[in-house]
Amino acid sequence: MWRVTAPTDAALSVPVGDNPVGVAVSPDGTRAYVTNTISNNMTVITADAIPPSVVATVHVGTRPQDVAIARGGTRAYVANLLDGTVSVVDTTDNTLLTAVPVGQLPQGVAASPDGTRVYVTNFGDGTLSVIDTANNTVLSTVPLGNGTSPADVAVSRDGSRAYVANFSSDNVSVIDTAANPPAVIATVPVGEEPLGVALTPDGSRAYVTSSMGNTVSVIDTATRTVTDAIGGFNIPLGVATATRGVAGTPTALTLTAEHTGHGNGHGRGHGRDASGVKGERGPTLKARLTGGGRPLAGRSVLFAGDSRVWCTETTDSRGRAACTVRGKQDDDACYTAAFPGDSTHAPATATTCTERRIAANGKR
Predict the structure, then answer these.
(1) Is-contact 219 208, C-beta < 8 A?
(2) Where does 168-250 show beta strands of DSSP type E?
(3) Residue 192: φ, ψ to 5°
(4) What is the DSSP letter of 64?
(5) What is the dihedral of CA 119, 120, 121, 127, to 10 degrees?
(6) Residue 320 reports pLDDT greater than 90
(7) pLDDT for position 9
(8) Which residue stretches of the chain are H helix?
């Protein structure tokens, strides 16, 4: 299962393959690519939809690990641990194009910002493969040293440096990618058995997980020294960084639950579901979305219960959307409506609970 955090306190689960390991998101944020190491395939998911859904499953190599997106989002590169190859997938139609031979036990993958190069760590032979994405061939192989076991790689925004976490030698290799051929120019000691590495958007810091030291090392990329070791983790594996965006226009969302049909003493009703079959029917959830005090039309609102998504509806000209809950419901149920936000309006949520849930919590 792949989990997506919605703008509520819940997470939505999407069925994928067996033992999902790597994930990458397209530059436009519309697709997520998840590698499934036991299924030997990659699942393509609608990352911008609530709830998200699977749109394709692409067979790749044996024991796929990390995945990176390159060439403006039109290619996905997947490291296949036991094949010694990198699968190249055309993301426009989700088809396998080719497999590029690299080193032994390829694991981590990262693309240069301009999409012309893909860097692959070879855990088994202590090297880094550099792939030319124009023709999908290996341009050069960078030796990192015996006993390094490189696990993950990150590339700076200007594409001039690559940082490789070396699992067995407890350090990070700094590589000058502009050199011909690319070469290691520094080695920075970090915590025990580093696995993941990520750079801040401005490239001033590199964060490296120490899977056995239970810390995250912070590297000043200008001085190539560790400035801090953040503790409190339990076998940290991966790490990512992001820039917090500027919030859009504030929004407000209200939610009510109305029971309809023939009551049975607990507010439940009987009616017909969408297929016309008579049966138990829960409450009708009614939401209203406003931005700056004005109704927001044409926006998607997700309706969810304590453990599942009921439906996603679009607001009308008055900013209203409704969802009828199907099936028999508990007397102490809570329901949530969520607007995920867009380029101009901030996200919003609203929750309503039945009288029994409110009474149990001692609230009105």
Answers:
(1) yes
(2) 171-176, 183-189, 194-199, 205-210, 215-220, 225-230
(3) -75, 130
(4) E
(5) -80
(6) yes
(7) 46
(8) 355-361
Torsion angle, CA of 188/190/193/197, rounded to 10 degrees? Answer: -80
The residue written with tokens 């058995």 in the block is: 193
Closest of 210, 202, 213, 214 to residue 241, by C-alpha: 202
Structure tokens at 44: 């393509």
Indicate the length of the chain as a whole number: 364
Residue 216 token pair: 């995250």
Cis peptide before 51 (omega within 30 of 0): yes
Query: Residue 175, Cα to own-chain centre: how many angstroms?
Result: 27
Tell me the residue type at 324: T
Instruction: Enter the pTM of the model.
Output: 0.71
- 140 pLDDT band, cuts 50/70/90, is very high
The tokens for 247 are 């919030």
Is the confidence at residue 274, as pLDDT, over 60?
Answer: no
| Confidence category of residue 205, pLDDT binned at 50, 70, 90 | very high
User: What is the maximal distance between C-alpha atoms in the chain?
Assistant: 78
Location of structure tokens 């500027």: 246
- What is the helix (H) or strand (E) element at residue 252, kind and residue range? strand 251-258
Q: Is the pLDDT reported for residue 207 higher than 60?
A: yes
Instruction: Specify the DSSP class assigned to residue 52.
Output: -
Name which residue leads in pLDDT, 152 or 259. Answer: 152
Q: What is the pLDDT of residue 273?
A: 42
